[in-house]
Structure formats: structure tokens, C-alpha cells
Amino acid sequence: MVSLFKEKSAVSVFLLILLSAVVHVSFLFNAPAVVVTAKDGLIDFIMAPMKNWTPVFLSFLYHLIVIVQALRLNYLLQSRKMLPQGYLPAMVYILFTGLYPLWNNMTPGLFINFFIIWMFSLCLHLSHRDDKNGIVFNIGFIAGLCALLYIPSFMLVLIMLIGIFTFTTFTLKTFLIYLLAVILPLYFAVSVFYLTDMLPLAMKYIPDFGWEIPQFKDSRELIIAFSVLVCMVVLGLMKTPYANMLIVARKGWSLMLTALLLLSAGIVFLEDHSLETLIIIAVPAAGIAANFFIYNRSKIVSALFFWVIILACWYVGWGKFILK
Q1: Phi then psi for 207, rounded to 5 degrees?
Q2: pTM above 0.70, yes or no
Q3: pLDDT tens digits, residue range 245-265?
Q4: What letter does residue 7 receive in the DSSP assignment?
Q5: What does the DSSP 8-state code read for residue 30?
Q6: Which residues of 248-282 are buried (b: 16+ CB within 10 A; e: fewer)?
Q7: Which end of the chain has less neighbouring CB within 10 Å, N or C?
């Protein structure tokens, strides 16, 4: 089954659509819910009306978002020579979105993944562009916008700063351009709230920073999901042929790993947030884990891990109700 995704063809795209339906088969019984609160950030304004949408449309929209993101991640990694041709990165991303029950919902983090892929692409473009200031400004603006829209993604501001100076030399001018771009979305938002006499309303979007371990609900499903995810990431790191890669590709993988670690750690600095926020780690995690399926020589072992992930997705999605 895994070998089918190694081919660059229209059939593979159809198989990705089929895979999304298989991974999220629980939607036949429970459509994805819209999970968003004011504590998440200004994205609450955008997503709140979605709670009135029909379950069928939400299921269709979820599949569409996940498949488009998977294809964009796939294109990013291959266009920058980080991975060979095929659809294995897209396959892994779709698998990972079904690993944890809360990730089967329409959450702000799911939408933020679009921006994460976009910013990774911009960072990788820095390596072969002479005029870097425009790209730096765009990266900073998107990172600031993400932090404003979805507060748990605030670590992206630091990650993208690291990314910029991974692919270009450090200068004070570049740093100030990035800092200005990060602040700009907040400036615009405060200006709008002030001009519309809505500053008191804006107060509810101020995050509660503090040191808090997130509440672990469905601990059995949590252990299964993150054990599989961590295992695949470690195997992906072990299989990545760094010595045979271009310098740009090596830097790209370093940024992916940095993003994975910092985004995972960011949740402990926010109060009143659960683990559904960690869907934002799916992008770097899938990219890294795809190396295992690409460079592993044993088709049997690859197929075994593929079906283990499928079974884990089924269990956390709906199998637990049957087993009880």
C-alpha cells in the first residue's frame, strides 16, 4: 500500500482522498465539531459562525482542508529538494491528523497549518533570493498574524526568527524589519478596536500566560497517539540521509525539527488550553516522519507501520466505543 504513494500520478492523489476518508471514518458517526473559544484569539470571530454549519458540510470541509494541506506540504518538501518525488509526505500528514480524537475537529490550529506551510516555504526561498527584505517582512507579518489569530501559535514568532537567520546572515536591519512586521498585525487590530469603541471587548482576547501542564483527557488514546507520533518522528530522523543532502535541505530539516520541539513546548506556557492545539505540530512531524517511509528498504516493515497508524486512528476515532 505504501509503495502506491511513491508514484507521482493522478492515481496517487485519488488514493490520498480515499486515505483521508479511511482515516477519518468516524465522521460517518460523529461529524467534526467546531472547537473554538475567545481564549484562542481573534480567530474566534471567524470560526464562531461555523458552529451553525451542517455536519455534512463540516465533514467535507475538513477533508478538503487536510488534503490541500497535505499536497502543499508535499510540494514544499519536494520543490526544495528535501525529499524525492512522490506523495509519501502527504500520506503521513493525513495519517497524523487522525491520531488524536481532538484533532478530528475543526480547530483553529487546523487553519493555522496553512500559514505554517507558507512560512516554511518563504524561509526556504531566502537561500536563493538576492532581495531578502521583502520575504523577511512577509514572514514576520504572517507570524505576527498567526499569534494574533491563534494565541497557542505564538512560538511561531521565535521559530521563524530562527528560520530567517538559518538561511541568511544576521543583520540588525533584517531583525528590525522582522520585528516591525510581527508587531504590525497587532497594531492594526488595536487600531480597529479603538476606532470602533470595542476596546473592552478586546480584553477577553488577552491570553493568560503561565506555567501549566495541560489536562490529559482520554489518557489511553493520548498514550497511543503520541507514542505512535514520537516513534515515527524518531524513525524518520534516523533514516534521513543528511550526508547526501544539499546544505539548503539540511537547514530545512533543522528548521522542521526546531519547529516541532518549540511548538510542542509552547502549550505549557498557556492556561486553559488542551491538547487539540498540538495539531500545529503535524506539519513538521509529518515532514520528518516521511523520511522513514521513503528511505526504509523493507516494504513489509513500511506496510506494518502504515497499518499500525491506521489501526491507531480507527481506535482513537471510533473503535473504543465498539470495544467497550
Answers
A1: -70, 155
A2: yes
A3: 888 899 999 999 999 999 988
A4: S
A5: S
A6: ebebbbebbbbbbebbbebbebbeebebbbbbbbb
A7: C
